[in-house]
Specification:
GO molecular function: glycosyltransferase activity
Structural class: alpha/beta
CATH class of the largest domain: Alpha Beta
InterPro entries: Glyco_trans_1, Glyco_trans_4-like_N, Glycosyltransferase_grp1
CATH topology of the largest domain: Rossmann fold
Strand order of the largest sheet: 3-4-2-1-7-8-9-10
Distance between the termini: 32 Å
Helix content: 40-55%
Radius of gyration: 22 Å
Number of strands: 16
CATH architecture of the largest domain: 3-Layer(aba) Sandwich
Shape: globular
Protein name: Glycosyltransferase
Number of helices: 16
Organism: Vasconcelosia minhoensis LEGE 07310
CATH superfamily of the largest domain: Glycogen Phosphorylase B
Length: about 425
C-alpha cells in the first residue's frame, strides 16, 4: 500500500504524537508498505534541534520524510506547525506519489497553520480514503496557554469546538484509541468516529536485562540516584502537564520523601520554575532534559515507578510504556488514562486535584517494594497484549476497508455499512 502520512510533528520533537508516528512507521516499513511522511520543517529552530536533518529523507526502508514550510506554534520555542505555504508543495508531492490512502495526525492543530483540512481535497479528487487521528483535546489546553481573562475562555472554547468538529468531519473517519476519547469526540460534534486499538508498545524494547545497579551513574553521571527509590516523570515541562498540582502535592510530602529521587525527563517553558520549586522543598530532583525515544525504555526499566499529574491525556502513552517496563504508574483519574491504567492492578489512579489522595497512594507505592513489583508484573502482562504490530495492523485494516468502500462507490454499488461498524451517533 502507498500511504501518505501528514503529521503535526515528527522527530526530533519528542511527544505522544511523534513517538506514535515513528513506531507506526517502523511497522509499516517492516510490512513492506511505501510511506511518505509530511511534517513541519524544523530548520528554523536548529539551535534547539541541531541534528534535525537526521530525521528527514529516507529514514527506513520504504519510508521517506519530507519537511514542509512551517511556522511557530502557540509561542512554544521547541514546536513548529505546518504553515499555509505548505499547501502547494504538499499537493505537488501527493500528485507525484499517488497514494492509496492519506492519513492525518492532529488535523485540528494543522488547520491553525494551513487553514484547511490537509489531504481532504486531494483524496476527494482521486477518490481515495482520507482518515484522521484525534490525539489531543486542544479545547482543554486553551486555559493553559491563552493569556485571555477567564471570562472570555468559554467563548473561545465554544468557537474552537465549532472549528474542530468541522475539520474532523471533513475526513472519512476520525480514529480514536479508547472509549473516553470516543465519547468526547461525539460530544464535540464529530460524527465519523471509529474506535480501535490503534496505539501500542513494543515489549521487547523494555528488557529486564537492562536493569543495572549503577545505571544512573553510567548513563547520566548521577551516582547518588542509583540506591534511592526512583520516581520517573516523562513529558513536557508545560502548563498542560499538571506541574502546578505536582509542586503543591510534593510540598505536603517533602518530609516523607527520604531516600527518594525524582527524575524528570523532558523540557519546556516551566523548567526553571519547577527546578526552583523542588529546590525550595529540599527534594532530590534531577532534570535529565529531552531524551531520545530509544533512551526511554532503559530509563523506565531502571525506575521504580512512573508519575504523571496530567489530567488531559487522551490515552496516556507513557503509562503504557511504564507498564511495559514492569513498573507501576500513578496518574489522575481523568481522560483516557482511566482505560490505560487499571487501578489497583497495574498502578493507582488518584482523584484529580486531591493532594491527600495523591500523597497517600504515592507513599504506599514508595514504601512497599513488593507491591510495586506485583503491580509492575501485572502491568507488563497487560502491555504484552498491546503491541505496535497489532495496533498498526488494525490501522491498515481500516485503511483497506475505507479503500474498498471507495471502489464500491466508484462502481455505483454504494458504500454500505461494514461488519462490526457502529452506526453514527451510537454509543
Amino acid at each position: 500500500m502507498k500511504i501518505a502520512l501528514v503529521t503535526s510533528g515528527f522527530l526530533p520533537v519528542v511527544d505522544g504524537v511523534t513517538v506514535t508516528v515513528f513506531n507506526r512507521l517502523q511497522q509499516l516499513s517492516q510490512q513492506g508498505h511505501q510511506v511518505r511522511v509530511f511534517c513541519p520543517d524544523y530548520s528554523a529552530i536548529a539551535a534547539i534541534y541541531p541534528h534535525w536533518q537526521d530525521d528527514v529523507g529516507a529514514i527506513l526502508p520504504g519510508v521517506e520524510v519530507i519537511p514542509l514550510p512551517s511556522e511557530p506554534f502557540i509561542g512554544v520555542a521547541f514546536e513548529r506547525n505546518l504553515a499555509r505555504a505548505a499547501l502547494k508543495p504538499l499537493q505537488q508531492a501527493l500528485e507525484t506519489f499517488q497514494p492509496d490512502v492519506i492519513h492525518v495526525d492532529e488535523p485540528d492543530r494543522i488547520f491553525l497553520g494551513m487553514l484547511t483540512a490537509p489531504g481532504v481535497a486531494f483524496a476527494q479528487q482521486h477518490n481515495i480514503p482520507c482518515t484522521a487521528f484525534l490525539h489531543t483535546n486542544f479545547i482543554e489546553y486553551i486555559e493553559d496557554f491563552s493569556p485571555l481573562p477567564t471570562w472570555t475562555l468559554g467563548s473561545l472554547q465554544w468557537g474552537s469546538q465549532q472549528i474542530i468538529h468541522r475539520v474532523f468531519n471533513a475526513y472519512d473517519r476520525t480514529l480514536v484509541a479508547n472509549g473516553v476519547t470516543e465519547t468526547m469526540a461525539r460530544q464535540m460534534g464529530i460524527r465519523n468516529v471509529r474506535r480501535g486499538d490503534f496505539l501500542g508498545v513494543d515489549l521487547d524494547r523494555y528488557r529486564p536485562s537492562d536493569l543495572a545497579p549503577d545505571f544512573f551513574q553510567t548513563h547520566y553521571g548521577l551516582p547518588a540516584v542509583d540506591p534511592q527509590t526512583k520516581l520517573i516523570f516523562l513529558g513536557r515541562l508545560t502548563p498542560d502537564k499538571g506541574w502546578k498540582f505536582a509542586l503543591k502535592a510534593f510540598a505536603k510530602l517533602a518530609d516523607s520523601l527520604n531516600n527518594v529521587a525524582i527524575l524528570i525527563a523532558g523540557d519546556g517553558e516551566l523548567q526553571a520554575e519547577i527546578q526552583a520549586g523542588f529546590q525550595q522543598l529540599g527534594l532530590n530532583a534531577y532534570f535529565l532534559g529531552r531524551i531520545a525515544p530509544a533512551a526511554v525504555p532503559p530509563l523506565l526499566v531502571n525506575g521504580d515507578l512512573h508519575v504523571t499529574t496530567s489530567t488531559k491525556e487522551t490515552f496516556g502513552l507513557t503509562v503504557l510504556e511504564a507498564m511495559a517496563a514492569g513498573i507501576p504508574a500513578i496518574a489522575p483519574r481523568a481522560g483516557g488514562v482511566v482505560e490505560t491504567l487499571r487501578d489497583g492492578e497495574t498502578g493507582y489512579l488518584f482523584t484529580p486535584g486531591d493532594e491527600a489522595d495523591f500523597g497517600q497512594k504515592l507513599l504506599r507505592l514508595i514504601g512497599q517494594p513488593d507491591l510495586r513489583q506485583a503491580l509492575g508484573q501485572r502491568g507488563r502482562a497487560v502491555a504484552a497484549q498491546q503491541s505496535w504490530e497489532r495496533a498498526v495492523g488494525n490501522l491498515v485494516e481500516v485503511w483497506g476497508g475505507e479503500g474498498r468502500g471507495k471502489r464500491k462507490e466508484e462502481r455505483g454499488e454504494g458504500r454500505g455499512k461494514r461488519k462490526g461498524e457502529r452506526e453514527e451517533g451510537s454509543e
